[in-house]
Amino acid sequence: MSALVIGGGGEGIGRAISRAFAAAGAAVAVADVDPDRAHDAVHELTESGARAVPLVGDVRSRSDLDGFVTRTVGEFGRLDTLVTVVGGQVAFVPAVRLHEMGDEDWDLAYEMNLRYVVRAAQAAIRAFLSQGGGGSIVSVGSVAGVMAAPMQAGYGAAKAGLASLAKTVAAEYAGDGIRMNVVACGAIATAAANSARRTARVPEIPMGRIGVPDDAAAAAVYLASPLASYMTGQSLVVDGGVTVRGPFPT
Ligand SMILES: NC(=O)c1ccc[n+]([C@@H]2O[C@H](COP(=O)([O-])OP(=O)(O)OC[C@H]3O[C@@H](n4cnc5c(N)ncnc54)[C@H](O)[C@@H]3O)[C@@H](O)[C@H]2O)c1
């Protein structure tokens, strides 16, 4: 089994996903714009006995995305799973109300959270179809795409778009054995996330804790695995219960 993890060098969810796929026995291509992160992650995986290769490129480039897929197939013989991790709000776009949001910020949120996923999915699907035997796509989404996303409209709309994309891929390619699902994360403790803001939100979380990157990684590995072979077009929410709690605490 081989997996291409785009954003897999990250210190948070990306790295946890790369690690979890390797632990599940996959050969892992770690794609990242930051060469040090890609190489560090691969070093860690190979030290643990896994097969892994670093791929450096930018998700804003279609040719880099095509290259990620081609090089994964070249290294490992086939691609079984594409995972898209790159994304976010704070890192890319200022938090403002909708009427204050400029076109450039909207476009950036779309570009970093949805457009590249479409392009990566296209490249992966072409590889899946040409090699035969199906394949799986897992995209890291957010509860910001499930609920309202105050001060982050572009991010929320883009993450909501992932759910639609997964449904369409599911419907168009089910007959080819190709599945696509989303892991919709709630607050996950990562270096990129503002820890003070996160801690302040703990009382809103029924489970009483911020998630950890391994919570998201476990869901990603599950969705890609044969255990989820009858699941496609779904969003699996990993949020400690935030989206199911009513407005009145019990
Ligand atoms: N942390 C949270 O609370 C939270 C909540 C909901 C959803 N998410 C989602 O989780 C995902 C990962 O978030 P994270 O903060 O854990 O990040 P992460 O630590 O997994 O890092 C992501 C990686 O993406 C890489 N990257 C950034 N721009 C790139 C580009 N242009 N091309 C290629 N690689 C690039 C970075 O170098 C980094 O290594 C995002 O999609 C985010 O929206 C996070």
From TrEMBL:
The keyword Oxidoreductase applies. Gene3D superfamilies: NAD(P)-binding Rossmann-like Domain (3.40.50.720). InterPro entries: NAD(P)-bd_dom_sf (IPR036291), Sc_DH/Rdtase_CS (IPR020904), SDR_fam (IPR002347). Its EC number is 1.1.1.-. GO terms for molecular function: oxidoreductase activity. Signal peptide: none annotated. It holds the Pfam family adh_short_C2. It comes from the Bacteria. Keywords: Oxidoreductase. Belongs to the short-chain dehydrogenases/reductases (SDR) family. This is SDR family NAD(P)-dependent oxidoreductase.
